[in-house]
Amino acid sequence: MANTVNGTALTRHGSRVPALPAKPAPAKATTTPATRPTPTRATPNAPRPTVTPAPTIQTMVVCLPDELPAEALTAHHLDEHFGVTGTLKPLFWAVPALRLWQRHQMVGLRKGRPPACAGGPVKLLDLQGMRHAAGVGAGIRYQIWQQIVHGTRPATPWPVFEARHLADPDRYTLHAAAADFHAQPRVNAMRMYAAATPGTGQPSVGELEMYQAGQMAYQHYSATSAIVGDALLTADGRKLSPASDALTHRVTYLEQALRYLDTVEPSQRLIAVAL
């Protein structure tokens, strides 16, 4: 959780879950009396506006047009060609049987087992291996999470509090939203475990809604997210992304992104960009 967006902590999968912000200091009284505004009468039973928080996009998968040369895949050309400001990210695995003559087709290939890379033709990416490994890792984290939260009630996920704050920021401040979210026993149990056992790969409160959907759902979510990131840019320039960080919107995105990848040719080149 080292990355931040606008001073807000980011979880491993990018969900914005703020720490408790400091309360602002009370304003000092002045000698000049403030003019009291004329009260306005609210419309009875007026519906509150519905606000959908913007999604957190940390990793975008880009489908490269066939005519784009490999030399264009540099940081200062990403914005020129795709309108994306970021850097190449070693998200993918190359297939185990990658031949020496195929290495020049890969982008940012690194040594290791499995060899990581920023992209390449679909036929040379081990997408199935990535999904399997991510699903296995998610299953292990879920078993740990079950022990962490045993005996606590299901908690309301952060996007619900964030949406309520954005709908009426004057009456329901960010501080109040963060305080209400962190006050939940299940959230406190997860935070306590993270504090007592620091390190990578810990169950994150940003994935609370995904965990509460059940083990199989969490494993499928993690497996599919591993290969499509947080957003996908198609070869014809369409951007697929979730409407918000809520699970239902992320599942809709995963469905769309996987459906699109199922239609691409084996020679289609993919790259991953860290935003």
What does this protein structure show overall?
With 275 residues, this protein is an alpha+beta fold. The protein folds into two domains: 53-125 and 229-275, no CATH class; 129-214, no CATH class. It has eight helices and ten strands. The strands form three sheets. Strands 3, 4, 7, 8, 9 and 10 form a six-stranded mixed β-sheet that branches. Helix 2 (127-148) packs across helix 7, helix 3 (158-167) runs antiparallel to helix 4 (174-182) and helix 7 (215-228) packs across helix 8. The two termini are 15 Å apart. The relative contact order is 0.21.
Task: Point out poorly predicted stretches.
Answer: 1-14, 29-35, 37-44
- The total of beta strands comes to 10
Q: How many angstroms separate the termini?
A: 15 Å
Radius of gyration: 22 Å
Secondary-structure blueprint of this entry?
Layout lengths: L3 E2 L2 E2 L49 E5 L11 H8 L4 E2 L3 E2 L22 E2 L1 E3 L5 H22 L9 H10 L6 H9 L2 H12 L11 H5 L2 H14 L2 E3 L5 E2 L6 H15 L7 E6 L1
Parallel strand pairs: 3-8
Antiparallel strand pairs: 1-2, 3-10, 4-10, 5-6, 7-10, 8-9
Keywords:
single chain; 275 residues; alpha+beta; six-stranded mixed sheet; 8 helices; globular
Please summarize what this structure is.
This protein is an alpha+beta fold and 275 residues long. It has helices spanning 75-82, 127-148, 158-167, 174-182, 185-196, 208-212, 215-228, 247-261, and strands at residues 4-5, 8-9, 59-63, 87-88, 92-93, 116-117, 119-121, 231-233, 239-240, 269-274.
